[in-house]
Each structure stands twice: as structure tokens, then as C-alpha cells.
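quick one, two chains, predict together pls
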Amino acid sequence: MNYRIVLRTLGILLLCEAAAMLPSLVTAIYYRGNDIGAFAVTILLLLLFGVSMVKVKPKVKEIYARDGFAIVGIGWILISVFGAMPFYFSGAIPTVIDSFFESVSGFTTTGATILKQVEDLPRGILFWRSFTHWIGGMGVLVLTLAILPSVGARTLHIMKAESPGPAPGKLVPRVGQTAKILYAIYSLLTIVLVILLLLAGMPLYDALIHAFGTAGTGGFSSRNTSIGAYNNVYIDVIITIFMMIFGVNFSVYYFIFKGSLKAALKNGELLLYLGIAAVSTVFIAINIHGSMFDSVGQSLRHAAFQVSSILTTTGYSTTDFNQWPELSKMILLVLMFIGGCAGSTAGGIKNIRLLILGKTIKREMVRIVHPKAVYTIKVDGKVVDEETVSGVMTFYFAFMAIFTVSLILVSIDGKDMVTTISSVATCIGNVGPGLGMVGPLGSFADYSVFSKIVLSFCMIVGRLEIFPVLLLLMPHFWKKVSI
Amino acid sequence: MKILIIGDGKVGYSLAENLSKEDNDVTIIDKNAEALKKAEENLDVMCIKGNGISVNTLLEAGVDDTDLLIAVTASDELNMVCCLTGKKLGAARTIARIRDHEYASELALLKERIGLDMVINPEQAAADEIARIFRYPSAISVDSFSRRKVDMVEVKITSDTPAVGLKLKDLPSKVAGSILICAVVRNDEVFIPNGDFRIENDDILCIIGKPSNVYGFYKYLGKCTQKIKNVMMVGGGRIAYYLANLLKEMDIRVKVIESDRERCEELSELLPDTLIIHGDGTEEDLLKSENIGEMGGFIAITGRDEDNLMSSLLAKQYGVQTVVTKITRMNYSSILKTLHLDNIVSPKHITADIILRYVRSLKNARGSKIESLHRIINGQAEIVEFIANDSTSYLNIPLKDIKFARDTLIAVIVRKNEIIIPHGNDVIKKDDRVIIVTKNKAVLDLNQLASTGGLQNELQNSLKNIGHTPVV
């Protein structure tokens, strides 16, 4: 491993985090909160570490796949640690591990919280909590790629390790340009969302907080009862639609922008994603109609919001779905695993993988009937190469394996089954709220320190799609010369 | 610039590598996923798997707003069709690699009908390069301008040359009168010299002029003590065919050793004046019996790098003056340095270089008036060829009355077949080809040569430069 280039890139990352903390500092100063000092100290620390790490001069400037994975894996842990400092220093969250959990939950756009009361926290802290969603959603390192003027040829490894999906690609020939386009689309959509929320009657501060949460598909709110606190149909509808929008592969928007709307809409993954959302909404609406809500409109509104929120792994809520019938809760639990599309800000297994897995099952069946059949798996008329197919299967297995192991580790705490299963599922899928004690009105505060560490690990594993984090645990990976 | 490369072979890869480093947006199309993977992982380019002829693939790659399409697949026909389709779909310019010499004679027609902007034949280019080595055996680099009417040679001065210590204006006018020393490299820095410039040991001179005059000056420098009369070639491929013809024009007798019987017969038909020998070129006995020791030059151009290396080493051992070795893969580059082989030729690199140069000149020339471009020491100075047209603001004005920009020199004016080393009273006329030397990289147009600002001293310097060639 080329430690020098890894250190240097991590240094740049820390400097970017320092810059990303500035808006929160400004907010804190604007509201004259007692959190100004906490931000100032954290920014100074980031600058100190960042500058000294950037001064490392690498002998070899190429970033190979191994270095790229190391940068992403270590980088995410590092920014989470520094991101937790304002929570701890300001006293908003009293313990170190809780601050770390909250920070990881923010950057991985999970939105799981250990806070029971958020409304009395300082405004700057709440802003930072949600802003971590926004930068974590598209990727912190992708942000550095977009900002840095000279991005070398091999930085694609970094982007590949951070971007979700089985085979992340480029939109345009240059990595730096691709990162810029992604962030441009992301920022534009966020601004549109802020304006719409303002028009719907949300105050500017709340609109920003919820726009960050929606754009990053995170789910932190500045209100205890999340979106339900506003009880406003327009806000519900706007956020439902925008959560769905941010769960779509961003390249679709690029192609729409380039004028090929038809090609974009023929995207198999997009259709599957919309189909799952529609079917789930209908089932839940029928299920909760009558028992929970009296009017068809109300049932559809809440069903659609909750499906959109869980499927895109955002985690906002308009109502306490913990009270819903079992069928609805089970559908939501399944949606936690599915997640959004590749190349979006959403978490989960991703629809494209389900699509490929489904087609693999079909191929196995065709092979049983015609043992000599040659059958290639195609998505959108293009052949998916065998490497990607086996990658998807390995990913699925690894995802489930980590889910199972974490489940056993978390169950040491002795919580009930629904709580345990849903809290691991919600963390590894980057959703946020679960069912039972960790439902939309509950929190993760009651878990033990050990469980919180396991769940934090699950969140990073889920966000980085497993391998960048697992590699860090392999001793082989750290050796200078690996044979 | 947006560049589309079809074919991710060695040339395609090397082109993509260099072009993407120079800030172009490069997209590669190839059918081979394995080759693309290498490019995708190591280069900042976009890779698309597919057939380069397919309209869909080309459109997916954005051919409609591509500035340049380069087709370098293994097949000539494929390349031509790719360019034809690409042009119809809106690519601004196209380059095709066409290596079959049967097409070579029809190039003009092909260029016009298919709308090719440039055709590149790697074997022909390699043969040209090798022939130049034989024309100027110890030159560092040789380049041609104005369709080979003007040669530019970079040559290193050693202590045994008579020119050491002389000022440029003191050089004997008989040999120096009709050439121009347009740039001097000293300690890795480029100077554009005037008449008072003193030549020193280890200087690299860039000499420009009519090929025969440059050759004359070259002889004066003592750089070609004896003209090579006999050359032995090992390997009878396409390069051998082109090269044998070129060397014949230079009155050099050629002996070709080729191991394939059928190819030998073919060659003896194609090259009636050349001696073709059937045998293994790495066999010492055969080389000895064919008097390798008496040869002035030895050229190893078989298809196998290892054979070329071994037979070149043999030739060096027998004291051949000029040995040229063709190396296709650069796997041995670190060993090559220790072997002291002076002339290594790599057709793929030459091809890539030529295309690169074309791209650079395209980028420079907004109005596409740049004809060719040569760089000295990593581009510290450039030698650029323009064609003067109506838009040139100082036609028919004596050069001494024009104020020129700093560090810029008009080296040669080519008017039809006449080659003029300009003095203060010469003028630029319409349709002249003007070759300039400049340290100003921003020269994109002839009009930019005329300085707009004051800076009297520098102007006078440039004027002095213009008239610097020793007065007869």
C-alpha cells in the first residue's frame, strides 16, 4: 500500500470537511447558540490535521485500486470521528460513543438517532446533523473529486469505491467532470426542493434541514415527530415526490438533460423501482384504510409517504407506522432491504442488483430445462458481464452474512425480536427508524455501547457497499508488499 | 477537444494516454472488454464496449459533437467505414490508419471521397523515419515541412566540429548561406540566436532549409564522414518494402534477408533492384557470409523484438556504422538503454506521435491554418508552419517594416517551389507557406506574430533575427 498518497488524500478530505463545517458555524453564530465554540475548535483541529497530512509528499503519485479502497474506508471512519466532535464539544450529546453513532448515522444518510428530544438542541448542531446527510449522500470523496482542480487518471478507483451500485461508471470522459456534473444535478434538485418547501409554508431553516435530509435520503429532522409535525398535505406530497427523485440513478437526469428522455425512461431499474413503490403503496393503503385512516386520500397520502421514505432509505415519517397492521409493517421491513437505485443517494441492496439476481434465477431454471443452453443476462438490452453477475451474488451473500452476524451481536442486549431485527435492518440499509422500540417516535438511546458500535459499523458497511470496510479488517490488505 | 478513438490496441491506448494527459475528453470504443478494462482503470477516459461501425454505438459515444474521430482498429476497411460513418454522423474531422500499400496509391481519392482528414500508415511512417536516420546519421531528430520541401534537423555540436567557437555570422557563407540556424538548445534552454551568437561545444543546433542545403551544412559540420552506400535489412515486411524504395532514391544499395520463402519471392517481384536473400537473420554465419562487416548500415525490422535486438547486437559487434532496431513492444526499454543501441524505431510510437502532433496543431489553430508543428525540448519552443491567406494583415510588406512579437522568428518562406530564407526586404505573399520559430506558445495565427505593443528593444531584436543569416 502506498501510505503516503493515502495520507495525503485523507488530508485533503479533512480540509474539505473543515470547509463543509463553515455553514454550520455561520448558522451557530447567526442564532448565537452555545455551539459556536464547538464548531470553531473542530474546524481548527481539522485544519491542523489536514494541513499536516497534505504536506506528506508521495513518491509514487498513482492511486491503485488498493489505495483507493483504503482512502474510502479509512476516510469515512475519519470524517465520522471528526464530524462527531461538534456534538460532543457542545454538550449536545454527552457521551463520545453516542456522538460517534449520530455522526456516522448522519454521513451514511441513515438518520437513526440516539436523541429523544431534538427540538431543544442548538440550531447550529441541528444544521450540521442534517448537512452531514447532504454531503454524505453523494459522497464526500466524490465532492473532493469535484472540487480538486487536477484529478489524476486513476482516481476512478475512489469514485468506484464510494458510489453505490454494481458497476458505477462515468457520465463523461473525465472523472473530475463527472463528479462536477453529479454535484451540479444534486445541488440543483436540492435548491428546487428548498424553494418548493418555502412555498408550501415551511420556514427557511426547517426547509433547509429537511431538504438536506431528503436529498441525501437521510432522515434527520429538526422536529421530534419528523414531517408529521407540520401536518401539511403540500409538504407531505413534495417530500414524497422528492424522496423518490433522489432515489433514482442520477445518470437518468443527466440523460434527460441531454435530451434523451425516451432512453432514460426505458431504464429497467427505474421501472422496477417505480413498480415496487406503486405496488407497496397500494397494498399498504388498502391495509391501513379503515383501521388507521378513514378517507381514501388520507390512506394513500400516508402510505405513499411511508413507502417512499423507507424504499429510498430516507426515514422521515408523517405518522407512527409502529401502530400499523402487521402486513404494512412487514412490507416496510422488506422495503428496507431493497433500497433505491444504483448511482443515487439511497442505500439498501439496490434495485439493479435485485433485477440481476432475478434474471440469474431465471437463467438457472432455463439451464435445468436445457442443460446446454448458453444464456447471457441482459439489462436494458445490454449484456451484463459474468464478473458483474458474480459480484452481485457475492454482494448479496455478504450483505446477508453481515446482517445475520450483527443480528446475533445486537441481540445480546435482550431487546424484543422486532426491535432487534428492524434496528439492524434499518442501519445496514441506511434507513433510520425501525419498528418496535426504534420506531419513528423511538430512538437508539437504550442500546448498549457495544450494540451502538456494531450498528455504526453496519451503517458504514451499508453505505460503502461492504467491501471498502471489510478490506480494512483483512491483515493482508495492510501489508506493504502483499503476496 | 472531444476525441473519439475506435480501437483500443497498442496505438489506440498510447494515443488515449497522451491525449487525455493534454486535457482532451477522450472516449474509446472497442469490442474487447479486457482491453477496455485496462484503459478504464489506468486512464482518465470513457470506455464504451461495442462495434465502432455501429451507428448506435457511435451515437452513444457522442459522435455528433466530436471534434476528432481516430480509427485505429486492426483492419483498414473497418477504419475507413468507421470514418465514413463518423463523418456522416457529424464528427468534425477523421483520421484513419490504413496500412495496405494497395490502398496507398489511392489515398488522394480515398481522402476526398470518404472525407478523411488524415491517413496514417504506420509502416510507411516508420520507413520514412528510418530513411531520415540514414540521411542524417547522427541527428537527434529530423522533421519535414511543406511536404518535404524543407527539412529541419536537430544536431548536437561536438568538440571536433569546425564550427565550435564561431559566431553565426562568421560561418563560411558557402555552406551557411542558404540555411538558417533557427534555434539553439544550451543547457536545456532554448535560444533564438542572432548573428552574434557563438556556437559552443554541446549545443544542439536546429538547422532548417532546403534538404540539399541542410545536407551540405551537415557535411560541413563533419557529421557524415562517409556516405552510407550499402545497407543490410533483416526482415522483409511492409516496412522493408517502403524503406527499400526510399533508400533506392538515396542511392543506397539494399540487401534484404527474409526467412519466409514465399515472401522472398513476392519481394523480389516488388523490388527488382534489391537483393533478396532467403535465410535466418539471427544466424551469425549467414550474416558473415553476406559480408555484414562491409555494410554501412544494418536495419533489423523483423516481427520479433528479440530477433531484432540480437541481430542488431551482432551487427554492432561487426562494426556496422549505423544500426537501426525496430522495437514494437516497449517491454525492454530499461535494458535497451544499457545496450547502447543508437537508433530505436517503434512504428506504434511514431504513429501515435504523428496523430498527437496533428491534434496539437488542430487545437492551436482556431481557423485551422496551421499546417504542421514541431516541438523542441518538451515544447519550450515550437516550429509552426502556416499558410498565409487574405486574412493575414501584413501581406506584401517588407519584413523589416513589420514589428514582430518577442522571441519569434520567420525561418523560411516557401513560395510554390521556391524556398526563401527571408531577409529584411523579403515579403510574405498570399498562399505562401511560412515557417516560424517561436518561444511564444500562444501563436495560433499568423497575425499574432505582429506585435501590437511597444517594447522597442525586443522588436529590434526580432528584426535583427530576421536578417541574421550571414550576409554574403
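Residues 69 and 161 of chain A are 6 Å apart (CA to CA).
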